[in-house]
Specification:
Layout lengths: L1 H20 L4 E4 L4 E4 L8 E5 L4 E8 L2 E5 L4 E5 L3 E3 L2 E2 L10 E3 L5 E4 L8 E5 L4 E8 L2 E5 L4 E5 L13 H4 L3 E6 L16 H18 L3 E4 L9 H9 L5 E8 L10 E5 L5 H15 L3 E6 L3 H4 L5 E8 L3 H7 L2 H20 L1
Parallel strand pairs: 15-16, 15-17, 17-20, 18-19
Antiparallel strand pairs: 1-4, 1-7, 2-3, 4-5, 5-6, 7-8, 9-12, 10-11, 12-13, 13-14, 18-20
Helix pairs in contact: 3-8, 5-8
Organism: Oceanobacillus piezotolerans
Protein name: N-acetylmuramoyl-L-alanine amidase
InterPro entries: MurNAc-LAA_cat, N-acetylmuramoyl-L-ala_amidase, N-acetylmuramoyl_amidase_3, SH3-like_bac-type
């Protein structure tokens, strides 16, 4: 009897030891601002973002996408920028090793997949690189001189590119940050000002468009009051190709209201409004309040293609919180850039 008990105790300890040494597969993120999507592909909406050194439980891999477990539900990340149990995830051969050729002199390479990262190299026309990996709108590339990240929009012949290089070359774009100075605009749920959101979005948009080769001008380059007439006069003498007025909504009586909308006044500007609205909704997965004709001074009196975008209701606490993050602002900017790119490509 004692031998039987001793045997059972021994077996239990062995089984227990085996159980405690079993570890679930883990996914380690290697870069910041990695989009988490609802399905295995860029056509699926973004449900969040992961940053470098974050770890998630691994569920499965489908081609070049890895499904991870989230606090609520699951999501998918591209396999190029994660490791599984310390080993690089396997990705399709069609992406790694492909060659590309630079189309324009002074094409910028950065040290990370975002315009937030520093420029580390200016490539020349016809300079060749090998693709190491791909992350949404960016390629990681390498040649015998440098390894860096290249924005797809700087390539003429990239099939997955939303905004092509020649769309922005030699284009002049005016960005109008609404309100300013003593004119604070709408007031957010926690006392934030529309003027500050508009200015931040405008300056981020300026950086992105400049990186793509556009000539960008701001109607107010700092926090100052500029009259509507002065904004329009500045635009009309500029001979610019597009005028984008950045605004945010507020409806304090119904703080649950959300959504994004774009206005035009002249019928010929409807296409520009539609492209921008479509791409911003695609980038943010926000509520689509549509495109409409608006009798608004800065677009009514403008001689160049002009739209006014209302990028969200700051009276909604959830929207206001998202707008305070750089990650969500980047989505808004990306949508506007892609919309402009499609408009200029027509």
């Amino acid at each position: 009897m004692k031998k039987l008990i001793l045997f059972m105790v021994t077996v239990t300890l062995v089984i227990g030891a085996c159980i405690t040494t079993v570890q679930a597969d883990e996914v380690l993120v290697r870069v910041d601002n990695l989009n988490i999507r609802s399905g295995p592909g860029t056509e699926y909406p973004t449900v969040g973002q992961a940053n470098a050194e974050e770890v998630y439980p691994f569920l499965q891999q489908e081609e070049d996408w890895v499904e991870i477990e989230l606090d609520s539900g699951t999501g998918w990340v591209t396999a190029e920028f994660v490791t599984i149990n310390g080993t690089e995830a396997k990705i399709g051969k069609e992406k790694k090793g492909k060659k590309l050729s630079i189309q324009q002199d002074q094409t910028q390479l950065r040290n990370g997949p975002s315009t937030d990262y520093e420029i580390v190299y200016f490539a020349n026309a016809n300079e060749e690189f090998t693709i190491l990996s791909e992350m949404d709108d960016w390629y990681e590339v390498k040649n015998d001189k440098i390894t860096g990240y290249l924005y797809k929009g700087l390539l003429d012949d990239t099939p997955d590119t939303d905004a092509k290089n020649n769309s922005f070359q030699d284009k002049t774009i005016i960005i109008d940050a609404g309100h300013g100075g003593h004119d604070v605009g709408a007031i957010g749920a926690t006392g934030t000002y529309e003027k500050d959101f508009a200015y931040f979005t405008a300056t981020e948009l300026e950086k992105e468009l400049s990186a793509l080769g556009a000539n960008v001008m701001l109607t107010r380059p700092e926090d100052e009051f500029v009259s509507l007439a002065a904004r329009v006069s500045f635009s009309n003498i500029s001979n610019a190709d597009a005028f984008i007025s950045i605004h945010y909504n507020s409806f304090t009586e119904q703080p649950q209201v959300t959504g994004i909308e774009t206005f035009y006044y002249h019928n010929q500007d409807k296409a520009l409004a539609e492209h921008i609205q479509r791409e911003v909704i695609k980038a943010t997965d926000g509520k689509d309040r549509g495109v409409g004709s608006g009798d608004l001074y800065v677009i009514r009196q403008n001689f160049i293609p002009s739209v006014l975008v209302e990028l969200g209701f700051i009276s909604n606490t959830e929207t206001e919180a998202k707008l305070l993050t750089k990650a969500y602002q980047n989505k808004l900017v990306s949508g506007i850039v892609n919309g402009l790119g499609r408009y200029f490509s027509e």
